[in-house]
């Protein structure tokens, strides 16, 4: 037993001796082999062991891992030779060039933006694998899940390589079908229109909406939620949204499982104000929800914002408005109490802006309703975000706030933008029943030199109308909330068909404008121009022939605009009201006063049915014995009164039939816009309308027996189709006059077409 015990001890000592002996030695020298570009001292600097240190297996292991993690080496080995430590490295090559092969659907520029590796950067397998994953993700966002990427290396001299990504794009992964489970109130077809993802159809060849995108699927869930909450379904939720590959792996089936819940109506709305010196009854007019109407979460959010803004204007900078929703499930009514409390006192420490390469910081900063030192206001931040987006300079504009490290009552507002192209070069052809065929071209920069300035040069050439214009706008003149700009223009109109003459005008204008508040704007414009009536037909009216020659006009005008529409391009609700006054006579040969009014109101009758009611009125009168030129008078027809030809409603010479124009006009229109049952993305919409209006007498010819004129009401009814085509807007109207005079000129078919490419 003693012999066995002694033998075991001896074996243990012998096994332990190499490590013990090694730890007792010192590293006298570190020898680096295999390096070409990397200096020896650089290699040694990464190591955890240095010359003169005791040898340690742990330090050698850490040195090995550190050298690998630098990304400079494809292989590293460390061995001990006597008192020397030999480090053998194989350097990663340097990338000479990166190429993409086989990519047709995605441009090289997009791939270069997505990948991280660049020429003159060290090649590593890990980085290449990460870039392959990024390229595949990019193709999947474009609906191509069958895409494959194979990186290839071409060895060059001096340890350099060319890197080529061989891409097989595969077929796009279309959405074959979209299904809904659990929906009772809305049909599948209606919910499909809500989603941004669409089912595969032949007419979607210009869109990628019918390709599968997992990020878009997440967005669609939110769109469904917003849609139901807007229409009274306060308990709605999306249980799941699942994408499944088709059996042939050529597309996807999307299935949304929803729980609609009960549909609620608005009940009572009250304000519980817990602020000193505030009477909650003063805010009651802001409670726009109507008991008995369907609950609308968007409207509740608007009320919260309006309350916050109103309290801010009353001096309550720190408020917290929270709607407390009380569901009456038995009567299916939602009663809401808006609790108004004093919020935390937080101030804006600074505003940080990132992502803007070309656009100057001040262009973004001046759109903020807050500045450093102001009381933090969530409503003003939301409005600032919308104003930045409305500039049209950015693809993305995110505004967030984070607590400051300097003080608990300070916050930092962060703005992250992604710029987009703001230059426009366009060419176009078109035709309309008013101006005939035309060709146009324009060049525009909406963010000149990153300063937010707008510069535009445009021209058009047509058989009946030719024009050229140069305009410039500075939205913040002298860094004030005051826009300023100028226009230089020239216009030729061939009025032979209407009044037997041609009209040339050239001029220039300077203008300025400012917002009195968010929905009220005033603009002022000074204009000088020279008009010439020429090429008067021999058989023209005597009243036209006496207008031959040139005249000059120096005028100043102001415009007040109240705009409460939800959209300026395609309004569905709200109203707009405009007053325009123009005075000529500050020099020049023309002396007159013109006053115009216009108004429009929009009502949403149904989800896609919009009622629009609009009207205009105008009057012009000369000073003293001065007569108003024929080019300044009012004419109706064409776009202003459908069913009648251009200048078809006007005082008219009995013998020649020439339109002479009137000194006042009034028009009105009632129009209903509705869907045609076609897919919404095709851009087709129908409309039914009635237009009506009248034009007054013409200057001192009121009692002339040679002129047909009547201030009676004219009216027409009609239907039309509009199409937002990929090549430009198209409008076709068919209208029939139901009230007219015998000397009026009507027009059954009215068509406009324009395209840009």
TrEMBL record:
User: Where in or outside the cell is it found?
Assistant: Cell outer membrane; Membrane
Instruction: Please give an example of a GO cellular component term from this record.
Output: cell outer membrane
Q: Which Pfam families match?
A: Omp85, POTRA
Q: Which Gene3D superfamilies match?
A: membrane protein fhac (3.10.20.310), membrane protein fhac: a member of the omp85/tpsb transporter family (2.40.160.50)
Keyword vocabulary terms for this entry: Cell outer membrane, Membrane, Repeat, Signal, Transmembrane, Transmembrane beta strand
GO biological process terms on file: Gram-negative-bacterium-type cell outer membrane assembly; protein insertion into membrane
* Signal peptide span: 1-21
Q: Domain POTRA spans what residues?
A: 25-92, 93-170, 173-261, 346-420
Give the function comment from the record. Answer: Part of the outer membrane protein assembly complex, which is involved in assembly and insertion of beta-barrel proteins into the outer membrane.
Family per record: Belongs to the BamA family.
Q: Describe its assembly.
A: Part of the Bam complex.
Q: What is this protein called?
A: Outer membrane protein assembly factor BamA
């Amino acid at each position: 037993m003693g012999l066995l015990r002694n033998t075991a001890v001896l074996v243990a000592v012998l096994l332990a001796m190499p490590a013990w002996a090694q730890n007792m030695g010192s590293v006298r020298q570190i020898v680096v082999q295999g390096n070409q570009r990397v200096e020896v001292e650089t290699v040694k600097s990464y190591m955890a062991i240095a010359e003169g240190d005791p040898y340690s297996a742990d330090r050698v292991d850490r040195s090995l891992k550190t050298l690998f993690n630098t990304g400079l080496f494809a292989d590293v080995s460390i061995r001990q030779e006597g008192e020397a430590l030999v480090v053998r490295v194989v350097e990663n090559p340097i990338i000479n060039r990166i190429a993409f092969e086989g990519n047709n659907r995605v441009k090289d520029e997009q791939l270069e933006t997505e990948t991280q590796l660049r020429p003159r950067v060290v090649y590593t397998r890990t980085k290449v694998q990460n870039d392959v994953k990024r390229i595949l993700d990019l193709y999947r966002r474009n609906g191509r899940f069958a895409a494959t990427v194979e990186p290839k290396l071409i060895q060059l001299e001096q340890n350099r390589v060319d890197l080529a990504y061989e891409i097989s794009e595969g077929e796009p992964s279309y959405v074959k079908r979209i299904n809904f489970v659990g929906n009772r109130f809305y049909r599948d077809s209606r919910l499909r229109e809500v989603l941004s993802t669409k089912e595969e159809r032949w007419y979607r060849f210009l869109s990628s909406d019918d390709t599968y995108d997992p990020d878009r699927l997440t967005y669609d869930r939110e769109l469904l939620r917003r849609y139901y909450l807007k229409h009274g379904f306060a308990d709605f939720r999306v249980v799941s949204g699942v994408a499944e590959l088709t059996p042939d792996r050529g597309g996807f089936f999307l299935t949304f499982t929803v729980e609609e819940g009960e549909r609620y109506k608005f009940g009572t709305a009250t304000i519980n104000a817990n602020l000193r010196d505030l009477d909650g009854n003063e805010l009651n007019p802001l409670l726009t929800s109507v008991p008995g109407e369907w609950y609308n979460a968007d409207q509740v959010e608007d009320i919260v914002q309006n309350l916050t803004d109103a309290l801010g204007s009353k001096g309550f900078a720190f408020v917290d408005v929270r709607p407390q929703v009380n569901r009456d499930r038995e009567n299916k009514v939602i009663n809401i109490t808006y609790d108004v409390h004093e919020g935390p006192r937080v101030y804006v420490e600074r505003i940080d802006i990132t992502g803007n390469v070309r656009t100057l910081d001040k262009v973004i900063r001046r759109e903020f309703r807050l500045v450093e030192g102001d009381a933090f206001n969530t409503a003003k931040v939301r409005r600032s975000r919308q104003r930045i987006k409305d500039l049209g300079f950015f693809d993305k504009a995110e505004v967030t706030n984070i607590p400051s490290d300097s003080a608990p009552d300070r916050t930092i507002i962060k703005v992250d933008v992604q710029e987009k192209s703001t230059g426009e070069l366009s060419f176009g052809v078109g035709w309309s029943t008013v101006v005939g065929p035309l060709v146009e071209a324009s060049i525009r920069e909406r963010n000149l030199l990153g300063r937010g300035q707008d510069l535009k040069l445009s021209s058009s050439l047509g058989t009946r109308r030719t024009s050229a214009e140069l305009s410039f706008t500075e939205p913040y003149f002298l860094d004030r909330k005051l826009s300023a700009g100028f226009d230089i223009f020239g216009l030729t109109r061939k009025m032979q068909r209407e009044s037997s003459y041609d009209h040339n005008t050239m001029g220039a204008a300077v203008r300025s404008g400012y917002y009195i508040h968010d929905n009220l704007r005033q603009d002022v414009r000074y204009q000088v121009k020279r008009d010439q009536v020429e090429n008067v037909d021999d058989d023209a009216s005597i009243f036209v022939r006496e207008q031959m020659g040139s005249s000059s006009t120096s005028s100043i005008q102001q415009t007040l605009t109240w705009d409460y529409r939800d959209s300026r391009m395609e309004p569905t609700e709200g109203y707009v009201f405009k007053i325009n006054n123009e005075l000529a006579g500050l020099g020049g040969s023309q002396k007159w006063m013109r006053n115009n009014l216009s108004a429009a109101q929009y009502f949403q009758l149904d989800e896609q049915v919009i009622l629009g009611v609009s009207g205009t009125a105008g009057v012009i009168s000369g000073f003293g014995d001065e007569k108003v030129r024929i080019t300044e008078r009012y004419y109706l027809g064409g776009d202003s009164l459908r069913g009648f030809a251009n200048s078809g409603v006007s005082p008219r010479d009995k013998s020649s039939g020439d339109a002479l124009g009137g000194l006042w006009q009034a028009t009105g229109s009632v129009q209903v816009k509705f869907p045609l049952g076609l897919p919404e993305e095709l851009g087709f919409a129908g409309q039914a309308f009635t237009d009506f209006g009248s034009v007054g007498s013409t200057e001192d010819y009121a009692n002339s027996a040679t002129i047909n004129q009547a201030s009676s009401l004219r009216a027409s009814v009609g239907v039309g189709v509009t199409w937002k085509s990929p090549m430009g807007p198209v409008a076709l109207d068919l209208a029939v006059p139901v009230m007219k005079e015998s000397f009026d000129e009507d027009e059954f078919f009215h068509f406009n077409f324009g395209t840009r490419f």
